[in-house]
Specification:
The complex is a heterodimer of chains A (198) and B (76). Chain A is α+β, with helices and mostly antiparallel strands and 198 residues long. Chain A is built from 9 helices and 5 strands, in the order αβββαααααββααα. The longest helix of chain A is centred in the middle third of the chain and has 15 residues. Chain A starts with 9 loop residues before the first helix and ends with a helix. Chain B is mainly α and 76 residues long. Chain B contains 3 helices and no strands. The longest helix of chain B has 20 residues. The chains are: A alpha+beta (198), B mainly alpha (76). Chains A and B meet through strand 2 and strand 3 of A and helix 2 of B.
């Protein structure tokens, strides 16, 4: 642990102390799409609502239960996507948000940037409400551990690279160390991947 | 914030993002355990330091609650 690893950039501090586009009262907000990801047991939860016109996001508001970097990330993302085309916004990545913030402490990146997923969920909700299900893309990787934001792809890679036990995987990634709800599924996935690659 | 230095957890678990086991064990729910902060006092702190914190803290809490999905203000 080094002191430097916890330092926030000026942009993170600015967005945390003066967050943009907070959703005030959801009952009074007439959204075209709504997405919610994470849960309070894990420690981060985000709600994103959007308004859409002519395939563009005309407004984006949010609420976040999480740490300073989670709040700053969602705030930054909301600024980034207002005025952005739906397609482009649909493909925004955590790295894009982190870059706009001039970086985040390393062990904050994994769990705090849920914003892109909440936004995706909101855009998919918009597509569903408007009969545009064809626009929804099947995610290439699926998040298994929602607390640590770890996908099935990462578990697959672990096995591909010679990883064996659940304990080893947990040591490496902290998978299943918060709410523990995914542990059984992770063990099953490990078993499956060992069958494929073992 | 406001010249007050606090911590989101004990120093011995500063590398961890998990909520305090102590707070969970005494029966706090995850939203309170994750949302707790720790104040430490030293011999150089004065009573007016404490008054200062008591004055500065409530608006900060109100601000964080306003942007939180967890805080419903008693309604669900």
């Amino acid at each position: 642990m080094t002191a430097g690893s916890w330092l926030y950039t000026d942009k993170v501090k600015e967005h945390f102390t003066n967050p943009r586009n907070i959703l005030d009262d959801e009952d009074k907000y007439d959204s075209d799409g709504r997405g919610e990801v994470g849960n309070i047991t894990c420690g981060d939860q985000m709600l994103v609502v959007i308004k859409v016109k002519d395939n563009k996001i005309t407004d984006c508001k949010w609420k976040t239960y999480g740490c300073a970097s989670a709040i700053a990330s969602t705030s930054m993302m909301s600024e980034m996507v207002i005025g952005m085309g739906l397609k482009e916004a649909y493909h925004i990545k955590p790295e894009d948000i982190v870059k706009s913030l001039d970086g985040l402490p390393e062990h904050k990146i994994h769990c705090s940037v849920l914003g892109d997923r909440a936004l995706r969920a909101a855009i998919e909700d918009y597509y569903r409400r408007n009969g545009l299900e064809d626009e929804i893309e099947v995610e290439p990787a699926r998040v298994v551990c929602h607390c640590k934001n770890i996908t099935d792809r990462e578990i697959e890679d672990f096995v591909k690279n010679g990883g064996k036990t659940f304990e080893e995987l947990q040591e490496k990634t902290e998978i299943g160390t918060v709410c523990g709800g995914c542990v059984d599924e992770v063990k099953e996935l490990l078993h499956d991947y060992h069958h494929i690659y073992g | 914030m406001e010249g007050i230095a606090v911590s989101t957890g004990s120093a011995c678990s500063s590398d961890s993002l998990e909520p305090s086991q102590v707070l969970l064990s005494i029966g706090l729910g995850p939203e309170l355990a994750h949302g707790s902060i720790r104040f430490s006092l030293g011999r150089e702190n004065t009573e007016s330091d404490i008054d200062y914190v008591i004055e500065k803290l409530p608006p900060v809490i109100a601000k964080i609650r306003k942007m939180s999905t967890a805080y419903t203000g008693g309604k669900k």
